[in-house]
Amino acid sequence: MIIRGRARILAVAFILMILLAGCRVEKVDYYTGTVEGDKYAVMTSVSGEIEVVYVKEGDRVEAGQKIAQLDTDALEIEKMRLEAVLEGAQADLRNIANGAREEEINQIYQQIAQQEDQIGILKDQYNHVDDAYVKMTRLFESGAASQQQKDDAKLAKSNAALMLEQARAQKKLLDENLALVLEGATEEELLSAKSRVESAKWAVAAVEDKIESATITAKHSGTIETVYLNAGEQYAVSAKIADIVDLQALNIRIYVEEKNLQHVKVGDAVLVKVDYDSTFETSGIVEFIASEGEFTPKNLETKENRQEVVYEVRIRLEDTSQVLKPGMLVDAYLGDDDNE
Q1: Rounded to an integer, what distance in angstroms lies between the CA atom of residue 185 and that of residue 193?
Q2: Could you read off the pLDDT of 278-312 as tens digits, one per residue?
Q3: What DSSP designation does 220 have?
């Protein structure tokens, strides 16, 4: 009886162990992810025809190295035009700042003198036609002249008066111009001239910047992954000429189930292995854990985890051997590696 009782107790204990084992959440120690590299687009802010592309896919490039060259003929012509505008604006500013030259002042004096002579001549002409009009009026009143003759004399007097008035108005303008020249430029005129010079300088600098941008260089070191355009093709503003991937800055993106997220922390060390080489391994550091979960991405979806909520985790690789390349599948072991 005692033996049977002990057997029954052992049987119950065994069954409980099986049940507990079935209910326990198993920790997953590794996840499969794809190697990714930091990618940089090669582009510029100007458009034009590509003269030459200096690189091909797979080339190693350093920051500052030439990638392509755009045609700059039209920009060079525009630069020459704007430089001419700048020179004219600078000359105007010098003239305004320095004031009128003695020759210019003397020329205005001569114009005034000539105008005074002209006024004298026109005044004599007016006096002559005025006397003729007075005489013609007397003749008309005595019946010795017709109405038409009187009207013609009046018209001649009016024309002479108008010409004299215009000559005097012209002399007044010359006098005012002389006064302004002798007084010099106003503060507003000087400020306006300086503004035109600065505007012209900015225009030249802008086209020079475009010419410089037409030489397209790498902003980051890395390997040319893709070349999108070739020599002779048109380049539109902000289009991509090439992509550079930094093979020294690789990372892995994995997705961890919500139930296992507690085992992952930023800064954790990660062991990375590949299937095709059992001797190769490298390390990584968890640098990012998503704050919000998502359903399993389509490319990782299986019947078992179709409705599983997962969190994106990015691991920065510390591999400098360049064995790993973007696109490779690797296994990332989280925590220790006791289950390998």
Answers
A1: 10
A2: 888 888 889 898 888 887 665 554 445 555 788 99
A3: S
Rounded Cα gap, residues 121 and 123, in angstroms: 5
**Beta strands at 269-273 and 309-317: parallel, antiparallel or unpaired:** unpaired
Q: What is the CA radius of gyration of the chain?
A: 47
Q: What DSSP designation does 327 have?
A: T
Q: Indicate whether 338 pLDDT > 60.
A: no
pLDDT at 18: 47
DSSP secondary structure string, 136-177?
HHHHHHHTSS-HHHHHHHHHHHHHHHHHHHHHHHHHHHHHHH
Phi (first) and psi of residue 93, to 5 degrees: -65, -40
> What pLDDT sits at residue 339?
41
pTM: 0.53
Rounded Cα distance between 115 and 126, Å, is 16
Tokens of 120: 């004298």
Lowest mean pLDDT among 47-56, 93-102, 169-178: 93-102
Q: 311: which 2 tokens?
A: 């969190």
The tens digit of pLDDT for each residue in 105-156 reads 788 888 889 989 999 999 999 999 999 999 989 988 888 888 888 888 898 8
pLDDT exceeds cutoff 50 at 20: no
Strand partners, 223: 60, 245
Task: Please state, as a whole number, how many other Cβ atoms lie within 10 Å of the Cβ of residue 171.
Answer: 18
What sections of 184-276 are H helices per DSSP?
187-213
**How long is the chain?**
340
- Residue 243 CB neighbours (<10 A): 18
State the CB neighbour count (10 A cutoff) for residue 136. 22
For residue 296, give the amino acid letter. T
